[in-house]
Amino acid sequence: MNYYTPKVATALVVANMIGTGVFTSLGFQLLSLSSPIAILILWAIGGVCAFCGALCYAELGSRHPASGGEYHFLTELIHPYAGFVSGGVSATVGFAAPVALAALTFGSYLEVALLPIDAKVSASVLIIAVVVVHSRTHHESSAGQYYLTALKLMLILLFIGYALIQRPEYSDQLALNDADLFRDIFSSDAAIALIYVTYAFSGWNAATYILGEIENPARYLPRILMIGCGLVAVVYVALNTVFLSSAPIEALRGELEIAYVVAHYMIGPEAGFFVSLVLAGILTSTVSAMILAGPRALQRLGEDYPRLSMLGRTNEDGIPVTAIIFMAGISFVFLWTSTFEQILLFAGLLMAFNTFVTVIALFVSRNRHPDKVSDLDYRMPLYPLPALLFLAITGWTLVYSASQFPLQVLVVLLALVFGLGLFKWAQGR
After folding, report:
1. Widest CA span of the chain, in angstroms?
2. Residues 6+ apart with CB under 8 A from 346
3. Fold of the CATH domain 6-426
């Protein structure tokens, strides 16, 4: 079987992270928070949280190298049922829902920029095209993902660079207001805003889903996760600084196409259309990355559970074609039945909970194997501080979110109950 190179795996992490969230969530955050500095601090906190999570996953992946992400870690370290639920959540809400969001955002930007076609129709065409690319060979899949990610980064950096050269007109909005800052940063609204931030940073764990298809994963996984995560954190803070200083706050508040609004004020109406077209292209890479990574959890479910064996089928090059098509089908359900904000909130909550439990599994791994399992094992620096910091930030977000969105919590609990029956059925009982 062919393998993905470390540079392709790093591109996968970057592409998974830089997607819908950073181009859409700022408008929602400004609905409840009035301090731009507080918002930038939240983005920095999100970056720290993601980096700490990456350190945890790097150690887990080094100690337990196999594809499947959270499914593999929780199955091996907690209980097969925990892995089963996590795998289902990862493949459906964790990837299928964000695929729908990214594709819908792609369609929205394309509609604004060029085509009088419904955004959901364009989104559907994009998903189908990406499925075709990633269902053939590792070589085609790798090349497509790497070059799309490189193009994405180049365009974003050019946008940031141009904004800084032009000296943003509304930079005075970033003036520090202590009263607004402290009120916002310690409010329950900040916790809700952090949901959007953590959602935007989600994807830092993407390489663990294809761990069994990466060259020498124990050696390369730590640098893949840390380079990818660190790069995106810097880009996110810079990008939001540009957004908040290049257009009036009132023009941004509640808006979905943030980059379009900013480009309109920064350059003019014509540039706004051009930027929208560019962003539609950028989101193609995001959809591609998630359709590449997500189905690997479904593949592992198919390999481990007899009644789900269809999902484990691969083509001659080891590509899980059935799992890819299945996850794409779930994305279509989200795309055509839910609103953008509903998907964003639900996906953000479930993905945060999924990673929270997985980082707890790191302590289990350390307890079972206090010493290195092999010389290739990576051990995070300053243990357990990064893990505890990740759990504290994520836990704070989850607690406040649960109080604000009890319906979503109820859905999660019902999923756990029904998941037990599905788990037993999948085992052939």
Report:
1. 65
2. 93, 97, 408, 411
3. Amino acid/polyamine transporter I (1.20.1740)
